[in-house]
């Protein structure tokens, strides 16, 4: 009898020490992403959360090869076929990655659509350009849209319908990864819920979803995994229920305390300037220590932000308490 082995789950995307910095005039360096190490797995929704300006969108742009000319990258971002998104030429990124391997859900579905053409015309164009395997009606049904609604112009679509069209467009090239950067900006709470639920449904087809958001409540609703980013670093990552239910890093606790159900306690102070991180890390060990030096029981970290891991969870810099 032969042993039956469970199939290995392959990560669809693996980030190794991904770093991005921007070179500004007069030798100033902006450290936007520092040593990010993350995995996207089929069937899972990874929420990347953190305050405005911590580097979430820069990380997304790095994965899509859409960084501006003054950006420098280090590390790697490997697709399951070995393609390194940081090293691939633009011809590969444009022809094989964007839309085909990674579908992008825009920040604002309604403004993303061309106003003078029906949803169907735009979807058909995307399917043809990406040589997608599904027709427009099939994609519409897949995202819970009545195919007849594809014949509407964008201004005739409700917010929820526009979101569904945007997701259908992102799925047109049948990508295994969906990347959504702040897809709920400006939406009311019920539509936020419907939008993230729709993304979570996309993950159930063995896709991976990377949901970038500063809406922790939305992340909690659908994420299977959470990565918390602060001042360019992922400071804590792991299964969503564990990270959000029992945070290890004080920054994660602080983000949760700022939610209505956490008591609306704003995080004191401000994140540091991303041009100052080298100096702050040298002085304080970790940048979050510098923000909250007066917190009771707060022992500043020393040395580099070494990773502490237990099972699927890990944090940087702060020992789990
Ligand atoms: N081309 C650039 N040159 C210099 N700095 C840049 C450039 N692009 C982005 N940055 C800086 O990188 C940092 C990270 O920005 P990013 O947009 O990734 O933040 P974010 O976490 O996505 O915030 P938000 O939640 O507001 O979208 C910011 O301080 C931003 O000013
Ligand atoms: Ni610290």
Summarize the model shown.
Helix content is 32%, strand content 23%. The protein is of the alpha/beta class.
The percentage helix is 25-40%
Mean pLDDT, to the nearest integer, reads 90
Q: What is the total domain count?
A: 1
Compute the separation of the termini in Å. Answer: 47 Å
Number of strands: 11
**What bound compounds does this protein have?**
adenosine-5'-triphosphate, nickel (II) ion
CATH structural architecture: 3-Layer(aba) Sandwich
- Measured by DSSP, the beta-strand proportion falls in 15-25%
Shape designation: globular
Residue windows where pLDDT falls under 50 for at least 5 positions: none
Within the largest sheet, what's the order of strands?
A: 5-6-7-3-8-9-11-10
Output the CATH topology. Answer: Rossmann fold
CATH homologous superfamily heading:
P-loop containing nucleotide triphosphate hydrolases
* Order of helical and strand elements: EEEHEHEHHHHEHEHEEHHHHEE
**CATH domain class:** Alpha Beta
* Secondary-structure-derived class: alpha/beta
Summarize the biggest pleated sheet: 8 strands, mixed
Enzyme class: translocase
Keywords: ATP-binding, Cell membrane, Ion transport, Membrane, Nickel, Nickel transport, Nucleotide-binding, Translocase, Transport
EC number: 7.2.2.11
Family: Belongs to the ABC transporter superfamily.
Core attributes:
alpha/beta, single chain, binds nickel (II) ion, 321 residues, 12 helices, binds adenosine-5'-triphosphate, three-stranded antiparallel sheet, Rossmann fold, eight-stranded mixed sheet
């Amino acid at each position: 009898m032969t042993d039956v082995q469970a199939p290995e789950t392959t990560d669809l995307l693996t980030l190794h020490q991904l770093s991005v910095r921007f070179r500004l005039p007069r030798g100033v360096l902006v450290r936007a992403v520092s040593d990010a190490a993350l995995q996207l797995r089929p069937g899972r929704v990874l929420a990347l959360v953190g305050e405005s300006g911590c580097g979430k969108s820069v990380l997304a742009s790095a994965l899509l090869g859409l960084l501006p000319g003054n950006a420098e990258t280090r590390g790697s971002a490997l697709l399951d076929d070995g393609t390194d998104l940081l090293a691939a030429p633009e011809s590969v990124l444009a022809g094989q990655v964007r839309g085909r391997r990674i579908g992008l859900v825009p920040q604002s579905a309604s403004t993303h659509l061309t106003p003078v053409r029906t949803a169907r015309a735009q979807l058909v164009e995307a399917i043809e350009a990406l040589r997608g395997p599904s027709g427009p009606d099939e994609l519409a049904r897949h995202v819970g849209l009545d195919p007849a609604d594809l014949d509407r112009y964008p201004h005739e679509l409700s917010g929820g319908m526009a979101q569904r069209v945007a997701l259908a467009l992102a799925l047109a090239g049948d990508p295994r990864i969906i990347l959504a950067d702040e897809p709920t900006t400006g939406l009311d709470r019920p539509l936020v819920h419907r939008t993230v639920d729709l993304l979570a449904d996309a993950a159930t087809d063995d896709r991976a979803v990377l949901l970038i958001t500063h809406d922790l409540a939305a992340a909690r609703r659908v994420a299977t995994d959470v990565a918390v980013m602060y001042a360019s670093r992922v400071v804590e990552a792991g299964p969503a229920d564990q990270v959000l239910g029992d945070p290890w890093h004080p920054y994660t606790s602080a983000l949760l305390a700022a939610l209505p159900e956490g008591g609306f306690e704003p995080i004191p102070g401000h994140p540091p300037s991303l041009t100052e991180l080298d100096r702050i890390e040298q002085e304080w060990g970790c940048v979050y220590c510098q923000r909250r030096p007066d917190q009771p029981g707060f022992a500043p970290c020393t040395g580099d932000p070494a990773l502490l891991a237990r099972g699927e969870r890990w944090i940087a810099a702060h020992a789990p308490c």
